Amino acid sequence: MSSSNNEKLYEATKRLEKHLKERENEYLIYKQHYILAGTFNVNNRQAPPNTLLEEWLYRARHSAKGEHIVPHIIAVGFQEIDTSSGAYIYDDKKKEDEWEQIVRRTIKHCYRSKHGTDEFQLLNRIRLMGILLFVYVHHSHMSKCSSVSRASVPTGFMGITGNKGGVGISFRFYESTLCFVNCHFASGEGQTQRRNEDYQTVESRMTFTDGINHSYKDYIWYTPTTPNSLAPNAQNPMASTRFWKINDHDIVFWFGDMNYRISLPNDQVRKYLNELSIESLYKKDQLRAEMNENHVFTGYCEPPIDFMPTYKFDVNTDDYDTSEKFRTPSWTDRILYHTKRSIIQHKTSNASFQSIIPLHYSCAKTIKFSDHRPVSGLYHVGIKIAYDDKVMNRIRDELIREFDREENDAIPTIEIYPRSPAILFNNIRYLDKVSYSFLIKNIGECPCACSIHPSSTFEPTRPTKIKELIEVPYFDCLTFTPNGPYILQRNEEQNVEISFKMKTRYSWSLGKKLNEILILHVENGADTFITLDVTLDMGPFGLAFDQFPPTLFDSEKRQYIYSIDPKRICERVVEMKNDPPALYVSLIECLKERNDLNLLSVFSGEIQDSLDLIRIRNQIYEHDYNFENYPSINLFMMLLHLLQALPEPLISRDIQDKIFLKTNNSNNRSSQLPSGATMQSNIPNESPSQQQHMTKAVSFIIEQLQPKERNLFFRFLLFLQKSWPTPEYARRTDNNIQAALNICIDILALSLLHEHTNRNQRQSFLLACLNEEKKKNSK
């Protein structure tokens, strides 16, 4: 069969499937099931001994018939279960298992069986650092669960840390596809846009499969398959794999600490709370406002909120925050749901009813050991349990005959405004985010489905895989609001915003100009081509050292010269051929002189969410390296951006290969921090002849590095050693201190080595370097 015929067969099959789906009420048999969903930010606190989270997870009631309601599915999401050193450095499941035991014990207590056996079994679980999701299914329905998959998407610092992001579990329950997503978005009262971006990132990049488990990114906190899971999940590598996005599922429950706040002054919020005027506050809820504007969670629903804000409380009290920060009370913890079909029809009685009916939506007031209150909801959900094959075959025959008659009568047709869309972004600087908006209108006689693809990977006869999109750098720098696909009824319109923001890892690879074509694909119709022309001005970001101007030094004043008039160069000004570019020198020297950088606070979510680097970036573009008026944290973050944007890591890939050539096997062992504290890590397991491999690596680098790279490497190490916390401070057992210390190691190692080696090797190498430098300084 020719490729042309294959394509026509594929399109005809897709069209038939789509129309069969639209008429599924005629042949599907639905049955109501109960789903309980819950979210809880535990603030890195462990529950008191023998705690039962009964108020949170016990939502059983008696129905109108006097029947005792027990959920069929329970989905439980936690945030901030662990922000200690272990969460950042190694895949320790201790706290994960502890919370699973607490949840399991609570469920067993709340929903006892007559024989004392477990009524619920764990279908699957997944963790992304402190974000944890469990899905339990009643034992009588476990055999009806299939195609279990899960995924995780980090949205934290530079898109690589999992302190923020989302995790999801997807599966088929009878004949319905279900998806549960647990998230933790950016914090901060003025960070609505960042929360929106976190949602868009998770929504667009979370991908499930009906075959082998797949994640958008192989990530350190991506939990392996749960042992002894009873859910069937065939993993035949030879079978064809279908990729699922979140909104491809029939039913989605999306919950978590979304961090949206109330857009009112703190004192006014507290006044309304004292008056119990919840409705006045709900009108100013940021999430509600963003949903009404279709900025986030388009098509999702949430029951009306009739409970008090769930954040932020003084621990073990009913008092809202009285600390120095005096946070504004807000509904940060939410549960939303989405369904493809809001109204379904009972086949035998022809009665129509809502596919999801909220029964309860509330917070647990008596669980007070965190600064959040847990939120839970119970829902009556219509699940497709079977097909009437006789009716379905009849409808299929009708559709085939109808398609034969309409083959040339109804072709999907759209118009784009502005016509012949041409995206032109000029002089885009590093960290800039620019946008282009256009309108799609369905002017045809039938509904149409549109989606946007990079021309280099698009084939109309098969879906584009997420891995292929990652391999197209410019497309990975684009975001689409809302995310596609776009389903338009007759005369319906859809506004689409395309945003471009250069990512650090691509800043050297795309050159100065980007000329590409995007395809707005119309299913069964004519495609539209969108030209994308971007002129990039990366300035120093992405430049190799030999592309910078010479580094100059005033031999009389004994200081570097960061800006000079070429006409005034005199004999005392000499070129330092072995020194790194003046920009790097200026940043490091300024930081060293101040000696006021608190490394343990640099990467906190609160500071990162409020950081604005545009002004200092603009000054760097003007070649003005006088940074006296900027906070140290801004200088430090600019230095890290420059290091991560280098086309070749400061420690080149070739050198890394030589260093780690014999360290491919992994095992647990303890690693000594330069402060004297210890850290458990999965670092390379070395044979006796290799035990000093990492220490010798420092000397090896001295020999292998080029002069400029070597100079900057040791300047950077000396600065880190000077800024490192004291041994007494680092040995403190405070979880927040350990967490901050270890995420520093993670980010700093990534800045030096990029992602060429694995995470454990990067970290053990950095620690060896810092320890070696400490020994030199102590002599």
Automatic annotation (TrEMBL):
Q: Per its UniProt entry, which superkingdom is the organism in?
A: Eukaryota
**Example GO molecular function:** phosphatidylinositol-4,5-bisphosphate 5-phosphatase activity
Q: Which SMART domains match?
A: IPPc (SM00128)
Q: Which SUPFAM superfamilies match?
A: DNase I-like
Q: Which GO terms describe its biological process?
A: phosphatidylinositol dephosphorylation
Inositol polyphosphate-related phosphatase domain spans which residues? Answer: 31-388
Give the span(s) annotated as Disordered. Answer: 666-689
Q: Which Pfam families match?
A: Exo_endo_phos2, OCRL-like_ASH
What Gene3D superfamilies does the database record attribute to this sequence? Endonuclease/exonuclease/phosphatase (3.60.10.10), Immunoglobulins (2.60.40.10)
The membrane-spanning stretches of this chain are none
Listed name of the protein: Inositol polyphosphate-related phosphatase domain-containing protein
The root-end lineage is: Eukaryota, Metazoa, Spiralia, Gnathifera, Rotifera
